[in-house]
Amino acid sequence: MNPVHIILALSVLANAALGWAYLGQRDKAAKASADLTHMQQQRDGARGAASACSDAVEALQEQAAQRAAAAAPARAAAAKAAQQSDRRADYTLSLKPRHVGDACASAQALADEWLRGRVKP
Questions:
Q1: Is the pLDDT higher at 86 or at 45?
Q2: pLDDT exceeds cutoff 60 at 53
Q3: Which listed residue, 16, 69, 103, 109, has the most CB atoms within 10 A of its CB?
Q4: Residue 106 buriedness (CB in 10 A; 0-12 / 13-18 / 19+)
Q5: What average pLDDT does this structure show over 66-77?
Q6: Secondary structure class of 98 (helix, strand, coil)
Q7: How many domains does the chain have?
Q8: Which of 117, 121, 108 minimizes the C-alpha distance to 88?
Q9: Neighbouring C-beta atoms of residue 109, cutoff 10 Å
Q10: For 23-33, what is each residue's pLDDT tens digit?
Q11: pLDDT band at residue 18, thresholds of 50, 70 and 90?
Q12: Domain that holds residue 14
């Protein structure tokens, strides 16, 4: 073999190595581009889900406000009715025991009085 053949063989080997390295880098770049596209799709999906969730929360807040407004009269009526019960409970708790030393008899006397007050002809 003469020196020209050796140089040509080395050049072919170097070109083959460079071609092999280029193909490897091209495959890595293609995979990175595909991965980037996949990640962008995931990001866009997550943004869409977050936006839908936010819209649903806003709708629930509006519905809760509507229901609170609709229930306000019932709550006010219940509070008014509770005031009468509160006054009766305060009155009952302020009474002295009817039978000192006998809590059961005192409670029975309070219950009898309460029942008499409920039965109004």
A1: 45
A2: yes
A3: 109
A4: middle
A5: 94
A6: coil
A7: 1
A8: 117
A9: 15
A10: 999 999 999 99
A11: very high
A12: 3-118
